[in-house]
Protein: Dipicolinate synthase subunit B
Amino acid sequence: MTLKDTCIGFAMTGSFCTFARVFPQARRLREEGARVLPIFSFHTAALDTRFFPAEAVWARMREACGEEPLATLQQVEPIGPKRLLDLLIIAPCTGNTLAKLAAGIADTPVTLAAKSHLRNERPVLLAVSTNDGLAAAARNIGELLARRHYFFVPFSQDDPEGKPRSLVAHMEEIPACAACALAGVQRQPLLPGTP
Structure:
């Protein structure tokens, strides 16, 4: 499936160390013909970190997507009622966000965007980035793998020696995975070798 003329929500949550790998993927989606609407969690929108100041994150996503990021509950609520998106991507998707999605909690712009979007039976693509992917977050990954309309960017351990329970998605596969999710297919293999 082509991404041309699709509308894709690109939601970012607070795995700040992976932002540099995510920005280019939003740009690639746009280059492939999609309209890309950036969506920020509260932390993504507001926190200055050792990786990026919040202002730089806003600027990078504005430039990559050509759109102003949505960063409030009020801004994302119409996503479902107005059928704004063909696909919602959450990249990076933290363990905290995985837990909220698995439990049906919609108290951030990203999780409310997912809830609103899912009411239309449309796909959500998750690009995990969590230090406890093979620990506490494992149950939430399993829960979401078993649900309709959730798809995952293939992931693997990013530092098996230093962080043996950490998982990170292969962010460079986001555009290909987006096309698969739009077609209702999980890209395989889900668990490739180390990135």
The helical segments are 19-31, 42-46, 54-65, 73-76, 95-103, 109-118, 138-145, 174-182. The longest strand covers residues 87-93. The radius of gyration is 15 Å. The CA atoms of residues 149 and 160 lie 30 Å apart.
